[in-house]
Structure formats: structure tokens, C-alpha cells
């Protein structure tokens, strides 16, 4: 198993996968090139994430997805653990945002994130189509935070 950084010129080939986690191309394009993309490979591609720097010492996971047939095998958790160590080299806070989805919130809490704050109307204000999770329309963005231990570098 290895985690590699994806070059800018190769990022777009993963759009179909990124769209599973974030349903609108124009929203993905807002962070795809200013962010760093990491791919977890175990023979073939298993998981992807995009991490951005949002301020001094503040990072955010903007997108994380595990290839559907490989979900629930621990790959997402491994990639979050890598991103945590990576960001801890120069940061103190790692955020992630999601809609009101019990499964995704549970995943992030299992990965050590704690609920931080809510951006009201994020999905209704920024997306060109309504989005649903378990039949419920997504409206607000729920942010979770992981405080990063001082890095070893
Ligand atoms: C969220 C996602 C990235 C998790 O990746 P994954 O590789 O399946 O996650 P892991 O196998 O590492 O799961 C770690 C833990 O998260 C929780 N979890 C993950 N998927 C879950 C599910 N479908 N239902 C309930 N809990 C779940 C479990 O506690 C799991 O640990 P366990 O299997 O030992 O019980 C993956 O489900 C995915 O790609 N979803 C679609 C895209 C998406 O919604 N991304 C997030 C956008 S904000």
C-alpha cells in the first residue's frame, strides 16, 4: 500500500470519483488546483482526497472518496491518518465539512474529528441542484475539526 501525491496535470482524470463526494464540477474546481491531491494505492486505486491550506496553520479536507467496491475496508481511515500527519508538519488544525449525513459524520468522528461549527444554507446557496442524503435535502455544511499534534519534521 502506498499514498502518492497526484500532479496537477493528472487531477482532472479523477473527476468522476471526486463527484461521488461533491456533486458539482464547478465546486470541485474551486479547490482542485489550489489543493493537494493524494491517492491511496493498494495494487490499484482505492481512495483519493484533496487537502487545502485555508490560513496560517489551518488545513481542510475538501474531498475524500473511496472507490465504491472498496469502501468499508479501512482505506478512508488510512488516508485521513496520512492527511493528519501531513498537515501536522506545518499546521495545527484540520477541518472537514459535510452535509447532515449520519454515515459521513460517523466516519469523521471515528477518524478523530469533533463537531466545530455550521455554515447555514451552504448547499442551498452554492449548488445548482438540490442534493439529498437518505431522502433528506442537504442545506447546511457541518464542519468538524481535528487539532493536530506538533509535527515531527
Ligand atoms: C466516507 C468514505 C470516504 C469512507 O471511506 P471508507 O474507505 O469506506 O472508510 P473506512 O473503511 O476507513 O471506514 C472507517 C469507519 O468509518 C465508519 N463508516 C464508514 N463507512 C460507513 C458506513 N457506510 N456506514 C456506517 N459507518 C461507516 C465506520 O465506523 C468505519 O469503521 P468500521 O468499518 O471498522 O466500522 C466513503 O464511504 C465514501 O467514499 N463515501 C462516498 C463519498 C463521500 O461521501 N465522501 C465524504 C464527503 S463529505
Q: Number of domains in the coordinates?
A: 1
In this structure, how is the largest beta sheet organized? 7 strands, mixed
CATH architecture: 3-Layer(aba) Sandwich
- Element order, helices and strands? EHHHEEEHEHEHEEE
Poorly predicted residue ranges = none
Number of strands: 9
Percentage of helical residues?
25-40%
Ligands present? coenzyme A
Q: Short description, anyone?
A:
The chain is of the alpha+beta class.
Defining traits:
single chain; 153 residues; alpha+beta; Aminopeptidase; seven-stranded mixed beta sheet; two-stranded antiparallel sheet; 6 helices; 9 strands; globular; binds coenzyme A
Descriptive notes:
This protein is of the alpha+beta class and 153 residues long. The chain has a single domain, classed as 3-Layer(aba) Sandwich (Aminopeptidase), CATH 3.40.630. It contains six helices and nine strands; from the N terminus they run E-H-H-H-E-E-E-H-E-H-E-H-E-E-E. The strands form two sheets. The chain has a seven-stranded mixed β-sheet with strand order 1-2-3-4-5-9-6, sandwiched between helices. A two-stranded antiparallel ribbon has the order 7-8. The chain starts with a strand and ends in a 6-residue tail after the last strand. The relative contact order is 0.15. The model has no long low-confidence stretch (mean pLDDT 96). The structure holds coenzyme A.
Amino acid at each position: 500500500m502506498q499514498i502518492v501525491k497526484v500532479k496537477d496535470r493528472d487531477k482532472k482524470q479523477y473527476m468522476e470519483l471526486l463527484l461521488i463526494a461533491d456533486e458539482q464540477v464547478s465546486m470541485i474546481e474551486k479547490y482542485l488546483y489550489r489543493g493537494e491531491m493524494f491517492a491511496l494505492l493498494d495494487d490499484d486505486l482505492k481512495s483519493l482526497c484533496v487537502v487545502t491550506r485555508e490560513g496560517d496553520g489551518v488545513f481542510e479536507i475538501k474531498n475524500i472518496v473511496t472507490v465504491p467496491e472498496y469502501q468499508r475496508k479501512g482505506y478512508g481511515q488510512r488516508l485521513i491518518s496520512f492527511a493528519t500527519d501531513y498537515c501536522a508538519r506545518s499546521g495545527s488544525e484540520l477541518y472537514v465539512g459535510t452535509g447532515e449525513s449520519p454515515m459521513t459524520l460517523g466516519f469523521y468522528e471515528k477518524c478523530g474529528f469533533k463537531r466545530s461549527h455550521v455554515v447555514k444554507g451552504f448547499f442551498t446557496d452554492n449548488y445548482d441542484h438540490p442534493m439529498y442524503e437518505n431522502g433528506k435535502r442537504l442545506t447546511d455544511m457541518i464542519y468538524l475539526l481535528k487539532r493536530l499534534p506538533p509535527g515531527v519534521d
